[in-house]
Amino acid sequence: MENAQGMKNLKSLAIAAALVLAVGAGNAQANTIQVDDGNGGPIHDVVGTEIGNLYLNGSAAFEYDIVYELIGGISGYENTLTETIGGGILTEGSHDGLSRVQVGVTSVGPTLLQFKFTQLNPAWEFANGGNNSANPASFRVTFAGANAVLIGLDDTGAGPDKDFNDWFGRIAITQRRRSVNNVPDGGSALALLGIALTGLGVVRRRLS
Ligand SMILES: [Ca+2]
Ligand SMILES: [Ca+2]
Ligand SMILES: [Ca+2]
Hints:
It is built from two helices and twelve strands. Helix 1 runs antiparallel to helix 2. The protein has helices at residues 2-27, 187-207; strands spanning 33-35, 54-58, 62-72, 79-83, 88-91, 100-106, 109-112, 115-119, 124-127, 138-143, 148-154, 167-177. The site of one calcium ion (CA) has 7 residues, from loops.
């Protein structure tokens, strides 16, 4: 039964090829996290200025987990990042051990990340989307790989001193494939399967 073993190997190869194609399609995407020029666009994978707002660069084929992590803060004030979809709060200096919040989202195309910075006494807040030259406080980011940034706030204290360490942390976006029941576009998955099966048929004909 040499042929049966051969077919088994070919099937494995076809499945592997389909997987490579699927993974390749994911890797060809731009960064899942991007930054604009401070005024809504254009968005980039690199940082050009000390202002700019953060986006999830999403695709319909995936769901995304967005993780916000507080690393620390060096400020006499009390600064908080709030993830505004789930309401998770990360306050530097006085947080109670919670240093990480996570939210799952779907997105098709660039979507502003939903978070804001808040300070008490003096009280102010600004949301991602308002990190522009008109706003006294601001945050800076630097990319840490394709799907994460380090982010630092300057809260305008002491000058402002523009030290961007008054709340600092990390935002990471993990892409995960949608469940089979939840995929709106089954066409691309079926197309990949079709390519794999067509390849299998061609080899089979050559062998016979
Ligand atoms: Ca500081
Ligand atoms: Ca503080
Ligand atoms: Ca500062």
